[in-house]
Write a structure and sequence with these properties.
CATH superfamily of the largest domain: Glycogen Phosphorylase B
Helix content: 40-55%
Strand content: 5-15%
Strand order of the largest sheet: 3-2-1-4-5-6-7
Largest sheet: 7 strands, parallel
CATH architecture of the largest domain: 3-Layer(aba) Sandwich
CATH topology of the largest domain: Rossmann fold
Shape: globular
Order of helices and strands: EHEHEHEHEHEHEHHEHHEHEHEHEHEHH
Number of domains: 2
Distance between the termini: 13 Å
């Protein structure tokens, strides 16, 4: 069996690592007839957002790197579609495996569907119900052309059922939970990020901002960063690894780092350093879907800088506060988060063996 895995962005590297690790250790090509071919679209091309994750997560080097880089959504998706199709025609895989909700996800799914190659989608069934988000369009379209839909939660399964998708849906748990539990111990042993930044556990907040709905809207961006700056000045230092998109957005909207001098801006960090920063934070602010879950895995309250989330379980559990982009609401949410205790609920995101369940399902369904 040959599997082509399509990845291109930081969250996908993390998710794919959970499956690739099992393929390397338990189903490697020398022992079985299973081979994984990895396509890296190049959607995240900055070293700290790409190669650093391959290195630290021990993901095999990509067999193909399309080097698509940046561009508009249409440009990127179109170029990826052309590049992925060429690889699929050459490799003739039994499965195309895609992750999450990026342009790379949709391009991989579309290329495979045009060639009648079965698609399996990891993290299927997530919905924000906000069609203005490019990620929402990507995940909905990918789900509707996939043969196997690996849902992380009961909510995801219900979302698919509501759209008439019941065949091929398998609730496997969350591959990010697999990885976090494994790498958390390693991060605590190896990461020196707290020492490098001269910070102490629970004496800082961690923030990430990169969603298009926030970076492309000057008013939202201004409000979010003014809130971070105020919290950092009055209450607790805020550390913010700067996403390349966010850096460009700040420049575009004439927000200078100097005018936000209370925030500690740092370059993007690798996975182990990020885990260490998360585990030791007092509160995490984010507009990222993945970081919301990672905050929960880390046992740290989260303030989500959006009006909705795909990960409703964390909100229902009372550990994730949705507050949007309003400066005053963000500060209020921070105060509430400081009083929130986080404890992991049994089975909410699976048993830490989602990667194994995914591979077994691919094998079983290839026999049919």
């Amino acid at each position: 069996m040959k599997i082509v895995t399509v990845i291109g962005a930081r969250p996908q590297f993390i998710k794919a690592a959970a499956v690739s690790r099992i393929l390397q250790t338990e189903y490697n090509h020398q022992k079985t007839n299973i081979k994984e071919i990895i396509i890296h679209t190049g959607q995240h091309y900055d070293h700290n957002m790409s190669q650093a994750f391959f290195d630290c997560l021990h993901i095999p080097e990509p067999d193909y790197n399309l080097n698509i880089g940046s561009g508009s959504h249409g440009q990127m998706t179109g170029a990826m579609l052309v590049g992925i199709e060429k690889v699929l025609l050459k490799e003739e895989p039994d499965w195309v495996l895609v992750y999450g909700d990026t342009n790379s996800t949709l391009a991989g799914a579309l290329a495979a569907s045009k060639l009648n190659i079965p698609i399996s989608h990891v993290e299927a069934g997530l919905r924000s119900f906000n069609r203005r988000m490019p990620e929402e369009i990507n995940r909905v379209l990918t789900d509707h052309v996939s043969k196997l839909l690996f849902a992380p939660t009961e909510t995801a399964v219900s979302n698919l059922e509501n759209e008439g998708i019941v065949k091929g849906v398998i609730q496997v748990g969350d591959v990010m939970f697999d990885n976090y539990m494994l790498f958390r111990i390693l991060a605590m042993q190896k990461s020196d990020i707290l020492k490098e930044l001269d910070i102490r556990p629970k004496e800082y907040c961690l923030a990430t901002v990169h969603r298009q709905e926030n970076t492309d809207d000057g008013e939202r961006l201004y409000s979010i960063f003014r809130a971070m700056n105020e919290i950092s000045r009055q209450y607790c230092p805020v550390i913010l690894p700067m996403h390349p998109r966010t850096r460009k957005a700040l420049e575009k909207h004439h927000l200078t780092i100097e005018s936000l001098s209370n925030i500690l801006f740092i370059d993007p960090v690798d996975y182990l350093d990020m885990i260490c920063l998360q585990v030791n934070a007092e509160v995490i602010f984010t507009d990222s879907g993945g970081v919301q879950k990672e905050a929960y895995f880390a046992g740290v309250p989260c303030v989500t800088l959006r009006e909705e989330t795909e990960w409703v379980e964390t909100v229902d559990a009372g550990v994730n506060i949705l507050c949007g982009s309003d400066q005053r609401e963000i500060i209020i949410a921070y105060s509430k988060a400081c009083r929130t205790k986080v404890s992991l609920l049994d089975g909410l995101y699976g048993d830490g063996k989602a990667g194994t369940a995914i591979i077994q399902s691919l094998i079983e369904n290839s026999v049919e």
